[in-house]
Sequence to fold (107 residues):
Amino acid sequence: MGLFDKIKSIFNGNGGSQSNLIDIYIEDDKCGNQMKLIFRKNYDIPKVYEDNREAAYEVKKVVVCDSCYNKIDLHLEFDKQYNIINQEVDQGKIIAKAEFENNQFLE
Fold:
């Protein structure tokens, strides 16, 4: 693919490859609000440089619920293929994509 084709694909909406994105779905413990978080592999998920850890990448974020403003502490660890190998969520929980979509359909 040439440079012009690459630029054209970005403006056509095909440049943001889905394989570069990781979707995480969480539910707030306080109000039950469900949210979709989108992380870019090459920007939002930093590499772990410590040799004594199993994780290759990790994310530490504080997510603020858009309904009740509760703060949800999120800590995810990924292997080299970006599979979650460890997760810690305080004030919330990770839910499946299907559960999120079913709830969005009902609203």
